[in-house]
Amino acid sequence: MIEQVSRESLEEVLPLVRAYQEFYKVQSVCDKRNFEFFSKFCGSSEQGSQFLFRKEEEVVGFATVYFTFTSTITSKIAILNDLYTLPKFRGNGIGRQLIDHCREFAKGNGAARLQWVTAPDNVAAQKLYDSMGTSKSTWHFYTYST
Predict the structure, then answer these.
(1) Beta carbons within 10 angstroms of residue 41's beta carbon
(2) In which band, very low, low, confident or very high, does the pLDDT at 143 lie, cut at 50, 70 and 90?
(3) E strands within 5-130?
């Protein structure tokens, strides 16, 4: 079952956020900072929203969508910035359901598309994405710390 993360359920999602950050080898994971940051996405806002997947009362996955704009198509777009399922629940369609839910959320909020990136070595995730009729970009992703 997918539900929008609320202030009450955020505490249930934070351990998965930590696991997601550890999976991507984030330095200095901070639960307090995570709580403050992800509180912005409880409920629906102009910034975006966070969703959880609950299986038999346990939160087993989550996804976060942020809104931004792009001048190449002069439209609002949605960024699927986080997608995570606990390892023992992978392969059961949870990631696919979360992506589909985020796509509908993006569409319902006027976004022209939903887009995301993943690590080149995250082959399991790429297998899912490739099976969904998505378009894979040939663009390179750069970051610049400020």
Answers:
(1) 22
(2) confident
(3) 48-55, 58-70, 75-85, 114-115
What one-letter code names the amino acid at 51? F
Among residues 93, 102, 101, 34, which one has the least CA distance to residue 67?
102
The pLDDT of residue 76 is above 90: yes
Q: How far apart are CA 106 and CA 50, in angstroms?
A: 12
Contacts 24+ apart (CB under 8 A), 37-43: 38/5, 38/10, 38/13, 38/14, 38/64, 39/7, 39/10, 41/5, 41/66, 42/4, 42/5, 42/6, 42/7, 42/10, 43/4, 43/6
Of residues 3 and 125, the one with the higher pLDDT is: 3
Q: Would you state the structure tokens that stand for residue 56, as one six-digit string?
A: 């038999």
Q: 62 and 33 in contact (C-beta within 8 Å)?
A: no
Both structure tokens of 133: 């009729």
Q: What is the pLDDT of residue 111?
A: 97
**Phi, psi angle pair for 91, to nearest 5°:** 85, 10
The b-or-e profile of 109-126 (16+ CB within 10 A means b, else e) is eebeebbbebeeeeeebe
99-115 tens-digit pLDDT: 999 999 999 999 999 99
